[in-house]
Amino acid sequence: MNGEHPDGDDLVAFALGALDPGEERAVEAHTPSCARCTRELEALIPAVAVLGESVEQLEPPPALRDRVLGEVHADVARSETDREAASSPPPRRGWFGLLTRPAIAVGLAIVLAAVGGYVIAGNDDGGVTETTVPVVAQQDIGGTLAVGENSSMLDLHGLGQLKGGEVYQVWVATGQTLRPSSNFIPDANGRAMTAVDGRLASGTKVMVTKEPQPGRTTPTPPILLSATVD
Amino acid sequence: MPMVSRQDPVAFEVFYDRHAGAAYSLAYRIVGSRTAAEDVTQEALISIWRSGARYDRARGSVRTWTLGIVRNRAIDMLRKESGRSPKLAAGGDEILEGRAAEELTDTEAVRRETAQEVRGAIHGLPEDQSRVIELAYYGGFSHSEIAAMLNEPLGTIKGRMRMAMDKIRATLAEGW
Q1: Within this chain, do residues B13 and B43 fall inside the same structural domain, yes or no?
Q2: What Rg, from alpha-carbon coordinates, does chain A have?
Q3: Does any CB of chain A come closer than 8 Å to the CB of residue B122?
Q4: Are A227 and A181 in contact, with CB atoms under 8 Å apart?
Q5: Which range marks the domain in which residue B114 is found?
Q6: B170–chain A nearest CA distance, Å
Q7: B34-64, pLDDT tens digit by residue?
Q8: Does A49 lie in the same domain as A104?
Q9: Stated pTM of the model
Q10: CA-based, 20 to 30 A from B105: which of A117, B14, B65, B80?
């Protein structure tokens, strides 16, 4: 078990999203391995749900439906285009060389020394299996990688703000092949969610770097985050 | 949700029609502006579309999970745009009154009836307890921020939160 049991009042505040960030991280780190606290939190879910559902109900504007579903259909079209492009042999790029460069070795040493708390959760929902795997990160950066069947999602916090045209870039390493995936910009609170396209097989490594601009085909050291799919 | 998780756009349309109203309503309740509520709802629902496999039924119903995501997005927007001050919107009854009852679809009517019922569980709380719940859940303030704001000891605020949640749970258990 990770850490001491939070007291009941803190679990209530956690369920309401009302803990201070440090307290919240402590509960997040402790709860997954503690059946008692998990049960207590689950018992609070219906009461928290009431708060969300008890507001006066409004009709969303029809234009909102058009915008949301427009994005959905654009995503579908993009992924079909990507699938067609993927049918041609992908370029193979060696990335072990990157890991053996001194600057990277130092970067990874920092990364590996700072493994934080994480959640591993299984979910069997009608045949779709979701697994959340640990993200190994530099200090103050944390998050999870939720692995889905056809796409996965990185949910990160504690990211530093970017300058100029900089972006955070996701890289997917399988064997000796490294490919760029999505790039993203965190919000003002240093939080970001970004999709990682494609199926992530066991052993696949997902990494994040900060790049001077989008569209780079090789990563710029150091690797800020990494997660390996079980 | 399995079909949404597999990024089936038709399934997502069904998901939208079931949950977008509640999502938009909660977003509006937190951010207090229709435009901002639309942005929050759009961001939250698109994030679900792109990460649908993250739904874990152990964390409650799809509706509960969806509203949790909407709430987090709305609070993030509040913090980003207002430099941390909460907008505690009024109930919004005046907006509903503008709509003729016959315009409501059956689903919409049921949704509003359910919301009205569950409001009873909250309206029964003492004012000091409902205030901390208001500031925490809809305002996005932490318990220590609330204690400083209300000039009360942190332990008092924690106690009020717990008592409020105990009462809501008890009301739910009675079947309101």
Answers
A1: yes
A2: 20
A3: yes
A4: no
A5: 104-176
A6: 9
A7: 999 999 999 999 988 887 656 766 667 888 8
A8: no
A9: 0.56
A10: B65
